[in-house]
Design a protein that fits this description.
The protein has three helices and nine strands; from the N terminus they run βααβββββββαβ. By secondary structure, it is an alpha+beta fold. The protein has two domains: about 90 residues, Pleckstrin-homology domain (PH domain)/Phosphotyrosine-binding domain (PTB) (PH-domain like); about 80 residues. It has a five-stranded antiparallel β-sheet with strand order 4-3-2-1-8, with no helix packed on it. β2 and β3 form a beta hairpin.
Length: about 190
């Protein structure tokens, strides 16, 4: 693929992936996933547990035993969900730290993004890609970390502060306009 002239870029981003940026990305992705379905699931389990245990107080006989069992199982499921969330966070944190330490000084974590009127180019050590804005499926802002999700689940991310030519907020507005998507703010 022949690269476009970098001088014609409206915005230029020079990004180096760091442990902090990866942790922020992971935390944001985990939060988005949890908010979409996990929160509803855990709330439902909690309501079932509480209602079943309260119902068991007023019920008698076999029905009391069934409500107690349902409430107990639901409560154990809620505890297991919390454990899974916390364990997943610590595991991801440890794996990111180990990966970054093992490849310290490597240059395959350096990226440049060039945003033109009709498309943008992502240039890394092992990849050069040109992407039309209509292929963006989602735009998110994880407290200053801009996340571009392309169709096919390719994720590109950089801090607003990484914008070398132009300002991060102006780039965010430009991306909204070109992709016809709203940036989803996610507090991380």
């Amino acid at each position: 693929m022949e690269r476009m002239n970098e001088n014609d870029a409206l915005f230029t981003v020079r990004h180096r992936t760091t442990q902090d940026k990866l942790l922020k990305l992971e935390k944001g992705v985990r939060k988005v996933g949890f908010e979409s379905s996990g929160r509803k699931f855990m709330l439902t389990l909690m309501v079932v547990a509480v209602c079943s245990l309260i119902g068991a107080l007023f019920a008698g006989g076999v029905f009391k035993g069934v409500l107690t069992a349902v409430g107990g199982i639901s409560f154990i499921a809620v505890v297991f969900c919390f454990y899974t969330l916390i364990n997943g966070w610590f595991t991801a944190k440890r794996e990111i730290r180990q990966k970054m330490e093992s490849e310290e000084g490597s240059d395959h974590y350096e990226w440049e993004y060039f945003f033109y009127d009709k498309c943008y180019e992502a240039v890394g050590k092992n990849e050069t890609a040109r992407v039309n804005y209509e292929y963006l499926g989602r735009l998110m802002d994880f407290s200053g970390l801009l996340v571009l999700v392309e169709r096919g689940n390719v994720v590109r991310f950089f801090m607003k502060d990484d914008v070398a030519d132009g300002k991060g907020d102006e780039l965010a507005e430009f991306l909204e306009k070109k992709s016809r998507l709203r940036i989803e703010p996610v507090r991380v």
